[in-house]
Write a structure and sequence with these properties.
The protein has 13 helices and 20 strands. 37% of the residues lie in helices and 31% in strands. It has 3 domains: 267 residues, no CATH class; 84 residues, Alpha-Beta Plaits, CATH 3.30.70.1380; 65 residues, Ubiquitin-like (UB roll) (Roll), CATH 3.10.20. Helix 2 packs across helix 6 and helix 4 packs antiparallel against helix 5. The chain has a 5-stranded mixed β-sheet. The protein is globular and about 85 Å long.
Amino acid sequence: MSKIAYLQCPTGISGDMCLGALVSLGVPVEYLSTKLNDLGISQEYHLRAEFVQKNGQQATKVYVDLLEKHHHNHDHEHNHHHGRHLPEIEQMILQAKLPPRAEAWSLAVFQQLAVAEGAVHGIAPEKVHFHEVGAVDAIVDIVGTCLGLDWLGIESDRTGFPLVYCSALPTGGGTVRAAHGQMAVPVPAVLKLWEMRGCPVYSNGIEKELVTPTGAAIATTLVREFGNPPSMTIKQVGLGAGTINLPIPNILRLWLGESTSLQADVAHSQQISPILETISVLETQIDDLNPQAVGYVFAALFAAGAVDVFTQPIGMKKSRPGILLTVICHPDNLLKCEAILFRETSTLGIRRTTQQRAILQREIQQVETKYGNVRIKVAWQGELQDKFITNVQPEYEDCAKLARQHNLPWREIHRLALQSWYSSKN
């Protein structure tokens, strides 16, 4: 049985409503605070939860109290609190050593939110400025929600995202005050997120802001499917209260249960849970470097621990043919790889991005052929005892060496190595 969740959003969704529903399901506020403090924001907010009444129904309200007003030392403190950009928030998340799923999901939600905000303002996602109040609020709401879903043990699907489903979302209406004056509801970032995901929406006649940008980013990133509830056995329901009072109770209902659909269980039994890891990507375009240097750069980067390096031919300014050089490496090798690019190439600037990478588990096995031994890279999905092998590849260099020694086609050695591996498994 897969543990799954359904978000029922009759009055929309916001980050604090998600937190309220998760705390209502038993996620300890102390656990969330402890983990969130690893982001280095313990001086900036206080998290608390209490029961509130919404139109006669009891639900859990989580408050993110911002502590900025206690700071008087303006110069130093103001800089510290003056909003944050995406790369800084990503860095905070990466340095916090959160549970792996919570880290991956948080990064994905922030990326989605920044892409939407950037599209609205016509700027790159990295340039999006999460305003003073918004930054801490959004960090607590987004990272807290991801921590809570991970804590509850909701299963991941084959892409590594949680098995969370969600109702269609109400559009809301009217206007709302924002940094740029009055704005129509849904605000532009929410509309953009709905457009990016192809979200089903409807009007319930309530002319208020019902879906916030943070709520929309959480839903459009983490939800697997929108619409009716999946076939499930309900075990527990969490109730998260919103702030404003509405004609119907302003409560987000999070149903926690087990999937009862045969299809979901079959999918789960073959479930390909790739491991999600964070990877850094460096790229720069170059049009004034001796091509002989490129081979040297490749070797130096691989020696420094790069996972992969590649070039693509591009046309550059003044009609010069150039190359786009891309390096993929683990975040702890980023500075080493960057130093090599500056030292060995003529580049003046290197772009850095942080991405999520789904990787299969892998190991090297040896097989014997009549011409000699060949190493085989075997990749699999799922748990060791229930593994589902998805890729078997003989090592190129081993095949090449035997092909040269015995004056045989490389393809023939490759075929024999595979044949030998498969026959040893039967």
